[in-house]
Every structure is written in C-alpha cells, then in structure tokens.
Amino acid sequence: MVLLAHVRSGFALSNGTYGSPRMRRELQDAGLVVGRRRIARLMRDNGLQARHKRRFKRTTDSHHAGPIAPNLLDQDFTAMGPDKKWGADIS
Asked: What do you get for the CA distance between the two ends of the chain, in Å?
C-alpha cells in the first residue's frame, strides 16, 4: 500500500506521462528498492496508464498543383526608399 501511494503520487506529479521504467527510476531516486515489473503490475491493476506522445503529422504538401507566388525580391533586400519592399516570416 505504501508503494502504491508512492506510485500514484509520482504518476500524478508527472501529469500521467510516466510509465513503469521512469517510475522505477523515480522511486529508486527516492530510496525505494522495487522492480519495474512490480511497478508495471501495480499501475496496470490500478488503471494508471501513461499517455503516449502524439505521432508527427506532416501538414505541408510541397508537391501540389496549386499556384506558387513569384519571388519578386530574389534575395535583394535593398530598397530605394521607405515602404517599397516588405518581408514577412510565417514560420
């Protein structure tokens, strides 16, 4: 029960992201000697499941058939006066 209390508090402090390997390291740093499989069993039996990282989803399609804006500046950023050339960064 003491170990389960430590596991629950560590899980809550990690915002639900720690699985059994990282939870084992946290408990060992706190001075508790416990195995990963025991922590995994305790977490499974009590419904503590770590959240996974989201998979990377590419949102840009560089090979499209849409129109491409012309490069009017062509890396020449010198201007004859104020308000003649404008630049922006969308990243």
From this structure: 50
Angle in degrees, 0-180, between the axes of helices 20-29 and 36-45, rounded to the nearest 10? 120
- One-letter amino acid at 10 equals G
Whole-angstrom distance, CA of residue 13 vs CA of residue 41:
19
Which amino acid is it at 26?
E
Q: Are 27 and 39 in contact (CB under 8 A)?
A: yes
- 31 CB-side CA count, 13 A: 1
3-state helix, strand, coil in the chain (%, to 5): 35, 0, 65
Calpha distance 16→48 (Å, rounded)? 8
pTM value > 0.90: no
- Over residues 11-65, the pLDDT tens digits come to 998 988 899 999 999 999 989 899 999 999 999 999 999 988 888 888 887 788 8
